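ok so I'm stuck.
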Amino acid sequence: MLHLRMITPPDRTDAVLELIDRTVGTTHVAVLPGAAREPAGDLVLCDVAREAGDGLLHGLRALGIDRDGSIAVEDIDLSLSDRAERAEEEAPGEAADAVLWEKLTEATREDSTLTLTYLVFLAVATMIAACGVALDNAVLIVGAMAVGPEFGPLAGVCTGLVRGAPRLAARSANALAVGFAAAIAVTTLFSLGMTAIGQIDASMLEAPRPNTSFVWQPDPFSFIVALLAGTAGMLSLTSAKSGALVGVAISVTTVPAAANAALALSFGDIPQMWGSAVQLALNLSGIVLAGTLTLLGWKLLWRARRHRMTRPPGTPPRP
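replied:
not stuck anymore, here's the structure
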């Protein structure tokens, strides 16, 4: 269930209440006339089943409540109420499959912002991966994948494309480009420093590396795994169940490929650097393609269900 707290202009409160009544899966409606001071208006509270939440938010925005008032949404972890149970049963579909597009857009906007923290995380992840590549240590590679924050901007690109938000897509793409460029540059300097103190040498890069050579030798499976990871990643963001993010973090080789490119650059190994760049491009494009198609599929599915989320005019809400 979701809890909505709205500040509504007094002249639109009746329209908001009518919208709530017509939306299936709503309950626990409360109205406090004149309770809001900034902005001035009425305070309206209600609970709604997650699968009906996006339709209700869409209707509230059509009434201009987000512009002239306020809409706040919270997840309800526990609701001990027979009415809440009946509301969830009334709403078609499953809560775990429901997509809250406004929440998804806001989350990806935050995660795709080019910040110092993002750059540091990506640089540290790439340096960890560089150590893994040099030592042919798969554990370090997996750790670097888990630390890397690049999935946020990738999800931002997908969301921006599907929702028709070019600024979000452009900002996310910029975060990816600048982030990986900075991470590769820092890791190249890191490699030169480690070489200067005798911890890394060119022989490590040229030696057989059965555990990590895949990061610069792209093949069809590179793109296939990226497609699967992109699908799983977007499902984890749109679903109420987000545990799959851990699996996504260790399923793609964006950060390790960038690390191998940096090491190869520091030693002047152009073939390995080029192979790593191709691997990186394949993974990024595969994730974006799969993520975008996944979101498009959910969008079409829930658009088809939207008409089932409202009652005909004049139909009383379920008691």
